[in-house]
Design brief:
Strand content: under 5%
Distance between the termini: 19 Å
Radius of gyration: 18 Å
Order of helices and strands: HHHHHHHH
Structural class: mainly alpha
Shape: globular
């Protein structure tokens, strides 16, 4: 019981990390220069089925990724991995909230678009590091990458690249079939240079933001959180 407050604090802080990643998704969509690879399928599906939100398609996709892990691991699938289910719902609804909150931001010129795309990189980088430090919620996209790397024996970074390419190809194929465009519906761009910016620069940005986030973490939280 004495660890319960720290556990709750971990989940609250991890939820803050998820919220920042969700803001990154919203900013990338606002930029109209393309979103992160893993968000491409939910975003392009929303263009076709606008009655279903991006966040709803996001948690649906995460549930599919959890099933994918179950198929890969079978008897090695641990009960703790089921925490990805509530994490999927939380993240999905945070995405919808962030998209709503960012709706009023200006994004008319290319300068604004590029600004929001780069802001998405920074916010996502900080959010991801907070998630890792909190060690609570598990997001199915990252966990599925880790599981496939372990099962296949391939390097995590290589599997991550393959997953990113897969998500982009699936979204692009759907957009081409439904809209006749590779990158979206013709006016809304799910896949563009912003997709490449987020795929390549988020990891590089974390090298700059991680020391700051980690320093703040160790200064603000008790040893039991470290």
């Amino acid at each position: 019981m004495k660890h319960l407050p720290i556990t709750l604090l971990r989940y609250l802080i991890a939820t803050l990390g998820l919220a920042l990643v969700a803001v990154g998704v919203a900013l990338s969509l606002k930029s109209n220069l393309g979103t992160a690879p893993i968000s491409c399928p939910p975003a392009v599906l929303n263009l076709r089925f606008s009655g279903i939100s991006v966040g709803t398609f996001t948690w649906m996709m995460h549930l599919v990724l959890i099933l994918f892990q179950l198929v890969l691991l079978r008897s090695k699938f641990r009960l703790v991995y089921l925490m990805q289910i509530p994490a999927a719902f939380v993240f999905g609804y945070l995405c919808d909230a962030a998209i709503w909150a960012c709706a009023a931001l200006p994004a008319g010129s290319y300068g604004w678009q590029l600004l929001w795309s780069l802001a998405a990189v920074v916010v996502t980088a900080i959010g991801l590091r907070i998630e890792v430090l909190a060690n609570a919620w598990m997001i199915a996209g990252d966990k599925a990458t880790q599981v496939l790397a372990e099962v296949s024996g391939a390097a995590f970074s290589n599997v991550k690249v393959c997953f990113d390419v897969f998500f982009v190809l699936v979204a692009s194929a759907f957009a081409l079939i439904v809209f006749g465009h590779f990158f979206g519906d013709g006016s809304h761009h799910v896949i563009r240079e912003g997709t490449l910016i987020l795929a390549l620069l988020t990891g590089l940005c974390m090298k700059l933001t991680d020391p700051l986030v980690c320093a703040a973490w160790h200064k603000c939280f008790p040893r039991g959180m470290c």
